[in-house]
């Protein structure tokens, strides 16, 4: 104790440590307070955006004709209002424009009750053939006096048209709203002659327009090849029996032992004919060196699709010198767009789901491949369904659409960008096999994806990716130039003799087996071309004239537009991961008939 009393406590020098601790405490407190205030402001802002989107979204996603029409400028309503030749002018005043929007399921269909009727006699086959020859010989370019002659480096848009005038109307409306559309030549390639469709096309006044007509259609050859010859071998007849009956092409069934079905061969013939017609036969394209963009009647384009296409073309030199195809439409298992937030997603998961079976899925007319994306239920077929456990997919995934094969369906690769959880339900579907020559012995699978809307694929810095061209991923809204076409045409025998009735699979076969410089694509991650067709030859919905998909596309583009995410300032290249090398697969069949081989080859000959 005495020792302790004798100790002298020496005070430590003041180093300012306590002051610094106090300052750090105050700084941390201020930072946390500021962060909390910022978070609260963001929360309130998101609430405001959510409520605004909900209010506006109710009007926009309304599937009624009035809501669809309200999204279209008044000056373009004329393209959405049917004027059927089956109705007289005296009854036109009784028709409501909005009610006419989507209720003409086929060319010439009655649209509403009228007071009186004019007798309309559609042209017979002889007259149709005569008109086709006349149109193809004239090669008339409408509106050339207004917009001037085609420039050699201008874009040519080629639209393959069958009979679905309803979707064609909306494609035309979307094209009319695109920037720089007045500079293009818009070519409609028809495999069905219809006066109502012709009237619609010839009504276009926002760019140069041309019509070409596939001359070997089933419509003009209903009882002879390339239509259905009475002596054609039935699809499912055995070869031995076919030889006994001596039916047409008995020696040459397809890979799966099936014989030709005319309605499923026409699309491939039409595709190769129109491509050759545009590049090698039309006088107006003789010196054209620019891009040719391929669309179909049930597509819908964003207003900046030409702007983005030009930007992609300019950047190929530094981003992808080997690219010879540019693709504006991608098939995504998950699709997301701007201004949807986690709060919305948590509050109402169901409200943030969009049906993309036709929006971004593969359900093209005259193609037996269907990937159906649904909101709440999977696509049911007559076959039994198998339900796998929930799986994780990726935002921005591009996947191969299921194709019919001999024993398995085709699946693509996942591309990792931002992960999202989705529930996948697989249903074994007969999508194309029921209706068309599934020339494969097994039924292909169709997947149904429920997915969550997440932050945007659209951005002022638009993402693009580069990969080998894959038929089931990059066949929608793609473009190439004359050099690429010339290389494809040199491989016409590979295209025309490959036993697959799909033009895109045949084109991929050409790329893999014949081209020295394979098809390599630059793909935009935020699609500018959408698929709006609900129904085709191989997929029949209960309501094929539904406005739902069109309304969803309009909603997607409205949000991107209001958020200033269209017309990007630059392109950013992203590298897809886990890319597997495309395997060589045998075709889907339907193309074993020697007559189809010969006709196809003859259509690739240059006549100019």
UniProtKB/TrEMBL annotation:
Annotated organism of origin: Drosophila mauritiana
KW Metal-binding (keyword) present: yes
Catalysed reaction equations from the record: an N(4)-{beta-D-GlcNAc-(1->2)-alpha-D-Man-(1->3)-[alpha-D-Man-(1->6)]-beta-D-Man-(1->4)-beta-D-GlcNAc-(1->4)-beta-D-GlcNAc}-L-asparaginyl-[protein] + UDP-N-acetyl-alpha-D-glucosamine = N(4)-{beta-D-GlcNAc-(1->2)-alpha-D-Man-(1->3)-[beta-D-GlcNAc-(1->2)-alpha-D-Man-(1->6)]-beta-D-Man-(1->4)-beta-D-GlcNAc-(1->4)-beta-D-GlcNAc}-L-asparaginyl-[protein] + UDP + H(+)
Record-annotated disulphide pairs: 233-247, 320-323, 491-514, 496-600, 535-544
Pfam families given in the database record: MGAT2 (PF05060)
UniProt family annotation: Belongs to the glycosyltransferase 16 (GT16) protein family.
Biological process according to GO: oligosaccharide biosynthetic process; protein N-linked glycosylation
Residue stretches of biased makeup (Low complexity): 419-444
Record InterPro entries: GlcNAc_II, Nucleotide-diphossugar_trans
Chain residues that bind Mn(2+): 298, 531
Tagged with keyword Metal-binding: yes
Pathway listed: Protein modification; protein glycosylation
Protein name, UniProt field: Alpha-1,6-mannosyl-glycoprotein 2-beta-N-acetylglucosaminyltransferase
Cofactor: Mn(2+)
Disordered: region residues: 380-445
Cellular-component GO terms for this entry: Golgi membrane; Golgi stack
Membrane topology: Single-pass type II membrane protein
Keywords associated with the record: Disulfide bond, Glycoprotein, Glycosyltransferase, Golgi apparatus, Manganese, Membrane, Metal-binding, Signal-anchor, Transferase, Transmembrane, Transmembrane helix
Gene: LOC117145838
EC number(s) from the headed UniProt entry: 2.4.1.143
First-listed, main subcellular location of the protein, grouped into a coarse class: Golgi
Matching Gene3D superfamilies: Spore Coat Polysaccharide Biosynthesis Protein SpsA, Chain A (3.90.550.10)
